[in-house]
Amino acid sequence: VVRGLYPSLDYIKKLKKLGIKTALYTTDDPYDYTMMLPITEHYDYVFSNDIIGEKLYKNCKHIPVACDTSIYYPISNAPYRYDITFIGTFFKERVEFFDSIYDYLKDKRTLFMGYWINKNLDNPISSFGSVDESPTLKLLGKYRDKDEKPSTLNLLYNSTLILPNPHRGKDWIGNNVFEATNLNPRVFEIIASGGFQLVSNDREETLRKYFDKDEIISYSGASDFKD
Known about the structure:
Blueprint: H1 9-17, E1 23-26, H2 33-40, E2 45-48, H3 53-56, E3 60-62, E4 82-87, H4 92-100, H5 102-105, E5 110-113, H6 135-140, H7 150-158, E6 160-165, H8 185-193, E7 197-200, H9 204-210, E8 217-219, H10 221-226
Parallel strand pairs: 1-2, 2-3, 4-5, 4-6, 6-7, 7-8
């Protein structure tokens, strides 16, 4: 089972009664920690996308995220389309970063696409959202809450000059204590595509376990990113 919010635990219990071993790969640690903790106890094997998962759950092993290189790969003749592309979920910290470099971005050819989290009092995730007056929302435009299939992402990664990759903050519905150390899937997807990415240096220690500084460059804040 991937992530673990589905199927129901009743289903997992029935499988165990049949003598079938069950394994869970939690792919959003530590953000879902409080939700996942009671779920993990019902599985025979637990794997986590973050090394911290080994401290959070019993009998847990770390397996980092990765990507399929038959989907993400360099395209030698890909046409230039954009100066800067970011496709993902617009968590508060990401929006704050893009807002801080908006004057730099507004004159560039950009593609911003993904799920926008609103500040809505009726929404349980409202405190993690961003106001609709954000300049970054202008960059999203018609691509707000849009998704793309992996093959399209690969083409876009190959057709863009610079791919910013800011990680999200630790605060989420199931966590406000544990700092994440994992690398997001985009890190692996973009490098497999041969794209040029700039990764936020809040995961620098983990980043350097996989990639040298001549393979992936990290940045510290808005000024450093623009330089």
